[in-house]
Design a protein that fits this description.
The chain has helices at residues 3-16, 22-37, 62-66, 68-80, 99-109, 124-128, 137-156, 176-195, 202-211, 231-244, 249-255, and strands at residues 56-60, 90-91, 117-121, 160-164, 198-200. The chain has 256 residues and is α/β, with parallel strands linked by helices. The chain has a five-stranded parallel beta sheet, with helices on both faces. Helix 5 packs parallel to helix 7 (137-156) and helix 7 runs parallel beside helix 8 (176-195). The relative contact order is 0.19.
Length: 256
């Protein structure tokens, strides 16, 4: 099915489904996948960017510490790529942390573990914890500098980097948290372009997903509280990162 055909089918299902059961949530999930890849769901296998026995370390805040998306990734590796023998992802997420906190422990929690790949998922608390104050350009500059330091340290150690753009703050694209997050997303993408590392655009996937919520939908559908993931949010995160590593969406869909 081509990209236009997929979107027509998804929109039709959204109009027909009014009870917001598992089928409705799956439609939102599919939209998130399309946004993450910026492509139709691929029927061919792209080149894998992870190889046999390679270890991944994931560093981040409470979203990473919760581990849901990492367990989903482990499941896909185990079921779809058993011959690669990818070891379980090492989770070094710590609740409440910001970019400066990750930088201070990056050597111990990433470099010393000698992974082949590190995923860096940070930025929510850099914005969320400061929403009571006006935007501060100096805070944004410090965030960008700290993320860049982590990328430099990883690359100097021969570790490949996946930068994960921060997801969402409230399931409303127009929420102040999400408007501010856009600046941090742009900063992370600039670092990725400058330093030639991979980007999993989680923010785009989540904004697209919540933008397509039926108007009569009540409550959160991909997070538990507007920030921390439920099962569907974790799956969107996992799929986006796996796509970035060259794993096509049809491989993840059959595992889910």
């Amino acid at each position: 099915m081509d990209h236009d055909g997929l979107w027509l089918r998804v929109k039709s299902e959204m109009l027909d489904e009014r009870k917001h059961d598992m089928k409705s949530v799956m439609v939102i999930f599919l939209l998130g996948l399309c946004s993450c890849a910026h492509l139709p769901l691929m029927s061919h296998s792209p080149k894998l960017k992870i190889h046999a026995n390679e270890r991944i370390v994931a560093i981040g805040d409470s979203i990473t510490e919760g581990g849901g998306y990492l367990r989903d990734m482990d499941s896909v590796f185990a079921k779809q790529y058993p011959d690669l023998k990818i070891p379980p992802i090492i989770n070094t997420g710590i609740s409440g942390q910001k970019a400066e906190d990750l930088t201070s422990r990056f050597g111990r929690d990433v470099i010393q573990k000698r992974p082949a790949i590190v995923t860096i998922n940070i930025g929510i608390n850099d914005v969320w914890h400061r929403l009571g104050k006006p935007h501060d350009e100096n805070v944004l500059k410090a965030y960008k500098a700290n993320v860049a330091k982590m990328v430099d340290a990883a690359q100097a150690a021969g570790i490949r980097v996946v930068l994960c753009t921060p997801t969402i703050i409230q399931e409303d694209p127009k929420a102040e948290g999400n408007l501010r997050l856009a600046m941090y997303v742009d900063a992370m993408k600039q670092i990725a372009a400058e330093k030639k590392c991979m980007v999993a655009d989680l923010h785009a996937a989540f904004i697209e997903a919540i933008s397509q919520k039926p108007p009569d939908a009540k409550g959160n559908i991909i997070t538990s509280d507007g920030v921390h993931m439920n099962a569907k949010g974790n799956w969107i995160m996992a799929t986006c990162i796996l796509n970035t590593l060259g794993i096509p969406s049809e491989k993840t869909a059959t595992v889910q």
